[in-house]
Amino acid sequence: MRLSRWLLAALVPLAACENIAGLLTDPDAPANLTYQLTPSGDPNAPLAVLLSWDIPRNNTANAFNIYGRVGGADWQLRGTTTSNTFHDAGVPDVQYYVASVNVDGAELARSNTVTIDLHANVPAPTGFTSVSLNGAIQLAWSNSAVVALGGAFDHYRVYSTAYDGSRGVCTATWVLEGTTASDGFLVGNLTNGGSRCFAVSTVTHDGHESVWTEARLDTPRFDARNAFVYSTSARTDSSGFLFFDDVTRRLGVVSASARTDLDITIVRHSDGTLWFQPARAGATMGLYGNTPVTDLTSIDRAPSTGYSSATIQAVPGFAYVFRVQKADGIHFAAARVAYVATDYVVFDWSYQSATGNVELSRIPLP
Length: 366
Fold this sequence. Notes:
This protein is mainly beta and about 375 residues long. It has 3 helices and 26 strands. The protein has helices at about 1-20, 20-25, 145-150; strands spanning about 30-40, 50-55, 65-70, 75-80, 85-90, 95-100, 105-110, 115, 130-135, 135-140, 155-165, 170, 175-180, 185, 195-205, 215-220, 220-230, 240-245, 250-255, 265-270, 275-280, 285-290, 310-315, 320-325, 330-340, 345-350. Strands 3, 4, 6, 7 and 8 form a 5-stranded antiparallel β-sheet that branches.
């Protein structure tokens, strides 16, 4: 019993110490003033700042005056509100505090002061890449900013703008595509053949934004999976392939080998192997690398040389690139073989509708 009384006596002053901070706080003062910036795309010029604070403990406040200043200048009244938040539009002041006001308009007590550093060194995402898709672009980057910021990280902002091909520059009309907390972002509903530039920034919990990544240029292109084409010796009615049929205005057309406008046919050699064969003078092809690729999107940009009219064996996992002359100019295409049977080949393909554009998967900005 004596030991229990001793412990109780020792705990009383400890509990009192834990409440000292609360007892020293003016019950009329707004407490825990914090801020949240609204990013704009310019790290040094946020759109606004949102101030938040706790209602004073004794509930005598009828309103709150918000004060701000820049540097060591005099405090200026920024506004008055009856709520416990205040939205200050435009580039924020460097410092703010809030004063409680009674029903007679007299100020009772002031909050803590918050200081906003508009030059906070927030790390931008690194390892920024993009993948061309059908009507979409997949963006990705490393998690370096998350690692560097730890618990201060909040999300990323993704921006895009049109690309001016005549001048070879990204235009100045950048827009916000969206935000994400992951290390990737899918930009959809894009027009195939239409080039756009993309960039990404990092945002912290209090709204500080990093500079942008380097801009990346990418162009969506048509693609499809599992084209099924027979060899000419097995079925002549379905052994030819056009990436784009100018007659029907359709993409990825399997047709008869007798057509004179085909891009490729599948032919069988004497040893039973199946081969891609360019079907006309305006269609040439080349092997994309000397090792298999994991997916159609692994096929990067079409090379500028290395195309010929020679046949190339269809081998599962290997990729092939095509240079196709059309009435409106040169188009590039790609294929990845998924399966080779005795009489047919199954392959995935992509086709760039923009003339002269070599983008088949991903490309950095020149």
